[in-house]
Amino acid sequence: MEDLRNKARELLAAKAVQVVVGYGRGTGASRRAVFIQSAAEAGELLFDNACRQNLAVYLMKPEVRKLGKMALVAIPATLRTILQLASENQIQDLELLALVPDASGAVTQLATFAAIEAHVVLQDNDLSAAEKGELQKYEIMGMEQRRQFWEEHFSRCLKCYACRAACPLCYCSRCTVECNQPQWIPVPAHDLGNLEWNIMRAMHLAGRCINCGDCSRACPVGIPLHLLNQKLISEVYTHFNSRSGMAAKADHAMSTFKPNDAEDFIR
Amino acid sequence: MNADDIFKPYLMKIERVTEETPDVKTLRLVFLDEQEGKDFTFRTGQFGEYSVFGEGECTFCIASPPTRQGYIECTFRKAGRVTSALADLEAGETIGFRGPYGNVFPVADWEGKNLLFIAGGIALPPMRSVIWNILDRRDRYREITIVYGARTVADLVYKPELDEWAGRSDIQLITTVDPGGETPEWKGKIGFVPAVLDKASPSSRDTVAVVCGPPVMIKFTFPVLARLGFAPENIFTTLENRMKCGVGKCGRCNVGKLFVCKDGPVFTFAQLQQMPQEY
Amino acid sequence: MAIETTSIKRETLEKLFSNWLSEGKRILAPKKLGDHVDFALVGSLAEVSLDQVQTVQSPKIAVFPRVEELLAFQSTDGNVQLRERDLAVLPETVIFGLRPCDAAAFASLKAIFDWDTPDKLFSARLEKITVVGLSCSRADEYCFCTSVGGGPGAAAGSDILLTDMGREDFLLEIISEKGRQAVRSVSAGLQPDAAMDKESRLARVTPAFTVEKISSVLAALFDDASFWEKQSLRCLGCGACAYVCPTCACFDIQDEGGASGKRLRCWDSCGFGLFTLHTSGHNPRPLQSQRWRQRLMHKFSYMPERQSVLGCVGCGRCSRACPVDMNMVEHMRAVAEAKP
Lengths: 267, 279, 340
Prior knowledge:
The structure holds three protein chains of three kinds. By secondary structure, chain A is α/β, with parallel strands linked by helices. Chain A has helices spanning 2-13, 62-65, 76-87, 113-120, 129-140, 143-154, 162-166, 191-204, 214-218, 225-240, and strands spanning 19-25, 31-36, 70-73, 96-101, 107-110. In chain A, a hairpin with a 5-residue loop joins strand 1 and strand 2. In chain A, helix 3 (76-87) crosses helix 4. Chain B is an alpha/beta fold. In chain B, helix 5 packs parallel to helix 6. Chain B folds into two domains: 10-101, Beta Barrel (Elongation Factor Tu (Ef-tu), domain 3); 114-238, Rossmann fold (3-Layer(aba) Sandwich). Chain B has seven helices and 15 strands. Chain C is α+β, with helices and mostly antiparallel strands. Chain C has two domains: 4-201, no CATH class; 211-337, no CATH class. In chain C, 31% of the residues lie in helices and 22% in strands. Chain C contains eleven helices and twelve strands. In chain C, the strands form two sheets. In chain C, strands 3-2-6-7-8-9-1-10 form an eight-stranded mixed sheet. Chain C has a four-stranded antiparallel sheet with strand order 5-4-12-11, with no helix packed on it. The longest helix of chain C has 20 residues, at 288-307. Chain C is globular. The termini of chain C are far apart. Chains in contact: A-B, A-C, B-C. At the B-C interface, strand 13 of B face strand 4, strand 5, strand 11 and helix 9 of C.
């Protein structure tokens, strides 16, 4: 922890960055994002297993971007997000630093996309054993069962869009759900509106989601959105041999045509 | 308004559609229920929620004066989902109307005074209700000056009425278009409304100014009026915040503690100076 | 009416449940749904979860559902016919086991929907609810009812207030005529009980700020942009806080189903970036800090000034639901301590 704080002090004092976005004390035992803008505040930084939010979401927030160059305390998913955002031309190389604390508390500073890529390939970026187990349980269900499963979950959806707000890859300034000429997705949070919204959200993340799980954690009514995303991650990997968030320059499965694609509908 | 159910619209028949500019139309609306039409009253400055069934509601002022009874008119630019649907309708079709909502221009208080109207672009409609209201009782008011500008000649709305006003000896009408917006035949001024106003320098003595226009025009017009000696309480304008319900509940239109739909849309510059900059 | 204090056995309460159901009333109560507790229709007291600090959502769904039809329309050959809601078919609903903060929230909702021009649909729903509150024996770090005029055993807003006294006994306070009617069918089973010590069963919620202090600071704080920026920097601008809030009432109106369809009212939130966006592209509140300020000002300044009621009851749901831990007590304490 002291390593991280010292690193933040050093970067801020040297004006190498204007803000360190990291984790600090939250309500009870929870951790929350803190925005450290001076060396004197660096003592607020914490790092432990309770630090779960993917702070890369703040890379796309204008109010935070406005603060200046950012150092981001990064967990594995954060690094994948940075690369994914880079591959979607949302951020530039060298516009941020990633600070990666390891289990011993030592901090690795990654200053370029290349350095992040080199770090990411060494991480385990696959679904965890627990995630795979949960996904398998889902896949055992037949189509009808799956439909019921999602209808039941989506019936609770409030359309508060916390999933969208918490997702660092949902950065559109105007979401499809807010486009009304034509009104693609019904605005009201009724069964049809909820089903269409949730399918659209998941599909727009297919081949892009880097599996941080913040959508599910953000959902106030406990819809297991990560399952949809993980299913899509696994499908995209199976069919396109593609994994998101691995490289700063990458073709995306859902927006790239290859002559040897399995489907022939586009030819 | 419908006292029983605040969300139940009157059914109105489109009696006439006037194409003002390529994307601005005026609809003349009459009540389908004759009795509702007879009972309906409004005052100048008020607005309503107009609806295309199946598309939704949108908010505009009533652009006709209360001195002309039996119909109301609205003028709108085709921009969003509802206004696009509204623009596609033809005479004879039915739409919904809720209202009248909001406060009014205190035209009775202005009797015996000079009036200066300043409008830009699509903001002439709220002022047109006031202007005709005043013109229909012309003898109660003194000098009337109208300064109206639009981006281009094509964007000027109510062209026949502008011609009529221009031909009257009891109105001074100054029309202007933004530089580059003129046509070879254009006889009016060329320049932005605040600058044209500044040059015309109408007297503020015993005069009430009414300003309606896009936020940027209003922003630059207030200082000109101040320089001409207008007291903030003698400058009136309308705010046009987004709204859904029109009756102070949906939570969209407030500026600080004030609701544009209930406490407005008409405000004096003196009031605006006391309000937070959230409009 | 004066509050009438009696006691009721759990078994009598169970009887009351079946009586309500046989009278045709719906019972909306906290129920365990997967790993969280939320309001749902229940068929017996056994289904009700009583020991959670709070439900995820608030009981406002009984009077302000997340989607409701305002009217329907039918267009045939250019003729439009409107069909208004039949308010008579709205169900009588007993809201059971809600916390005193939630019971107090109906007054805030009423202030919004009923001021100046009453909203008849809301009023009809409100008329048909009977509020059976349950005092809090536990609170958590998000609770702050005592800072906003409430308390873990406060009666305001409830028609009946229950306090779990342990050993299958409940203290029952009858607060309104509606409450008296609701327990009439078991009145023989109610025992006067002076010996019950309600206070001893209540959670302790230490006041964190005073409304007086907040009101005196807020208006002057409006223009302190850096204060609001600092407060809202981590806010992501979702609607979770507003949607779980028992007093938030912002709504949108949407048409559906084409020319023969419905006009619907649905929840909306002042936290959304597009909430106030004009068609022209102009936005009076373009920054999240301004939207966060609006949320706080509306609840703690505008509503008290315009409708003489606070727009917050201290239930803490907004903070529990927030994906980034925006903790309302903490933010309000910072307001109280600010020096504008």
